[in-house]
Amino acid sequence: MEGCNSSNSSETNSPCGLISVVGTGIGSTENMTPQAVKALAGADVIIGYKTYLDLIPELLEGKEVITSAMMQEVDRCNKSFDLAESGKNVSLVSGGDPGIYAMAGLVLEIAAKRNSKVKVDVVPGIAAVNGCAARLGAPLMHDFAAISLSDLLTPWEMIEKRLDAAASADFVIALYNPKSKKRTEHIVKAREIILSYRAKETPVGIVTAASRENEVIRLTTLERMLEEDINMQSTVIVGNSTTFSWNGYMITPRGYKDKYKLDKSP
Questions:
Q1: Model confidence over 131-188: pLDDT tens digits?
Q2: Bridge-partner residues for 65, per DSSP?
Q3: Residue 56 to residues 39, 65, 142: CA-CA distances in angstroms?
Q4: 198 Cβ partners below 8 Å, 6+ apart?
Q5: Could you give the CA distance from residue 21 to residue 189 in angstroms, rounded to a whole number?
Q6: pLDDT, tens only, 125-146
Q7: Domains of the chain
């Protein structure tokens, strides 16, 4: 019998299963969408990075579970296709949203490379950028850019160019993968680039391990942000020229005050 990755296999006789690329959100099951929970419930096999799967143990019961370490994304994707092409219903788990710095793009690249007939569903999840923004208040109320400081797959020169462009255009900037044990200087350089366009008093929010037991939320300034603990579980949100702090919240105005009266005073 022809494998379902063959371009000659008919859909009616295809043994293909399904790959659901599932976003589990920012940490706990209470932050997952019903669609994500349903996809995992219907899976024959659940595949994912062990750290993410450890956050949802109750959803893994009774399932065949395949875990792997960081940096093994290609292997996880190819294993998912091998299983789905044999007829399995596979859920490939991503933290956050699978379409933002996660697995959806790689899955579809590999699908195209294999010319696979497997159906791929991308199941969205709460991304770090909006999950952490909610913890801080309302820092993303105007135009913003998300930039990863990891140069594993993107040259640092390109990251610098994007930081400069976003900072010069006064975007609120969300920094993913800001610092690791080996990569300690990128966040320092990113701050220097942003400081060349922003006041040192610009509010900066740092959320680490959002919604998990060890969650830490810090509201600081561009001048003092490096005094805070920042790691790979952190998302750093740098305000624009209008962002301000009030009562523990980080707020970026949308522009209503320029068009409307915001209080009821005469």
A1: 999 999 999 999 999 999 999 999 999 999 999 999 999 999 999 999 999 999 999 9
A2: 46
A3: 13, 12, 33
A4: 167, 222, 238, 239, 240, 241
A5: 34
A6: 999 999 999 999 999 999 999 9
A7: 18-126 (3.40.1010.10), 129-251 (3.30.950.10)
